[in-house]
Amino acid sequence: MKSAGQQGLQEPATCKKHVDKARPLSERLRDKSAHIAVLGLGYAGLPMAIELGRAGFVVTGLDINDERVRLVNEGRSPVSDVSDADVANLIKTSQLSAVNKFDVLAEADCALICVPTPLAADHSPDLRFIEAAAESIAAHLHPDMLIVLQSTCAPGTTRRVLVPMLEASSKLRAGEDFFVAFAPERIDPGNRQYTVVNTPKLIGGVTPQCSELASLLFTSIVEHLVIVSSPEVAEMSKLVENTFRFINISFVNEMALLCDRMGISIWEVIEAASTKPFAFLPHHPGPGVGGHCIPVVPFYLEAAAHEYGMAARLIEAASSINEKMPQFVVAKLERLLAKRGKRLGEARVLLLGIAYKQNVNDIRESPALRVLELLTKREAHVAYYDPHVPSATCDGMVFRSLTSRDLNQEHYDCAVLLTPHSDVDYCSVARQVDLILDTRNYLTRMGGTEVVQL
Ligand code: SAJ
């Protein structure tokens, strides 16, 4: 029976490319006949899977979250920066599929590890997701396989944690029988300008051949590759990038506390300092530092410093400043209300935006949740409005976002702008309140409503 292809007909969408596994991996990466497995379909893994599918690879996404797997197979995106159409187009052509069973790794030529690297309760690195991924891959490891770790981790994790776990249950040796590299994800959620494609990709292979094979994979989707001399350099670069940001944010937060005492605008100070065309990189104060990266990654660097007998004092100092910001927001609000003869405990307070940053729906580590918790503890009447976050649990209580219709029916003594989303009409919100504490310097004059910057 001739296949559809042999009959010259359009191959049915379900047909997978025939792959000659005998050909070396380098050739299958060049002609994109390699099968790629992406472990973790989150904010880092799904955009990577989409770009690899678009480049022509067959990509299987692996995730332990059944709901996430179901959504992807239905052509829907569980990640705010990836559209449903992005997913559906690749599902339709069978370039992309998702599974929650890891035996597909036996068929995969490459495995990209894009799993979370959170902190444990004591702020120490939590590598259980990387270790689980390593175990899954090790169980299906085969010759000529490329494994790329993309999850943020401390220097040495690739060579001293991942590689031994991969080698433990087979005679295969990294750098000889299979290949390993570290290539940190640099996704900036909500950033429309910089994406997987135009953000330079660091690659640190365990051996030069490992770097070469990882480069062959990424060159199909990334405009600029940067090969470094080892996985440790790539791991350390990622930690330095994010800790640089964390410390600089904490510096301007501390200056915000000082300028508040001085009675001058930190925003005007930063704007003025930014006129210096060299040697100054503006960062801006806010209610604190949220997200899955910036408040987490520096503690991987701190743990690495401790391992080498050093105390990373700046990281601890920066963390204590950033963690103080929610209290500062509440204290400033209390002072503003007191000037109007209102006690915090009897005030009706509207929080605007509780996602950890603009135009995302993620509330992990969001400082807005801390503000909500502090105000609730002070017995203020608190509600929030965030069209990207329908509900949030804070201190064991479930809060539901107001709708834009609700906003027009209630009056509030004050609002606190914590995370300004670009799709919200703050003018209409301002009509419902007498005072807005703007922690992001986002609002201009709002009619008769008094707007006070942090
Ligand atoms: N923030 C400030 N002031 C600033 C900048 C940020 O208060 O001047 C706050 C934000 O509101 C947010 C937190 O810091 O709550 C983190 O913001 P972010 O955009 O720096 O962090 P992420 O985790 O969304 O994305 C970052 C990436 N961001 C940028 O470099 C702009 C980048 O560091 C990484 O690609 C990504 O983390 C990651 O995956 O590590």
Query: What ligands does this structure carry?
Result: ligand SAJ
Secondary structural class: alpha/beta
Instruction: Determine the mean pLDDT.
Output: 93
Helix content: 25-40%
Strand order of the largest sheet: 3-2-1-4-5-6-7-8
Order of helix and strand elements from N to C terminus: HEHEHHEEHEHEEHEHHHHEHEEEHEHEE
Rg from Cα: 25 Å
Strand fraction:
5-15%
Structural commentary:
The protein is α/β, with parallel strands linked by helices and 454 residues long. It contains 14 helices and 15 strands. It folds into two domains: 2-229, 3-Layer(aba) Sandwich (Rossmann fold), CATH 3.40.50.720; 231-454, NAD(P)-binding Rossmann-like Domain (Rossmann fold, 3-Layer(aba) Sandwich). Strands 3-2-1-4-5-6-7-8 form an eight-stranded mixed beta sheet, sandwiched between helices. A five-stranded parallel beta sheet has the order 10-9-13-14-15, with helices on one face. Strand 5 (146-149), helix 6 and strand 6 (179-182) form a beta-alpha-beta unit. The protein starts with 24 loop residues before the first helix and ends with a strand. The model is unreliable at 1-16 (pLDDT under 50).
List the helices and strands and how they pair.
Layout: H1 25-30, E1 35-39, H2 45-55, E2 58-62, H3 66-73, H4 84-92, E3 96-99, E4 110-113, H5 128-138, E5 146-149, H6 157-168, E6 179-182, E7 201-205, H7 208-218, E8 225-227, H8 231-262, H9 266-273, H10 297-307, H11 313-339, E9 348-352, H12 367-377, E10 381-385, E11 391-394, E12 397-400, H13 404-407, E13 414-417, H14 426-430, E14 435-438, E15 450-453
Parallel strand pairs: 1-2, 1-4, 2-3, 4-5, 5-6, 7-8, 9-10, 9-13, 13-14, 14-15
Antiparallel strand pairs: 6-7, 11-12
Bound molecules: ligand SAJ.
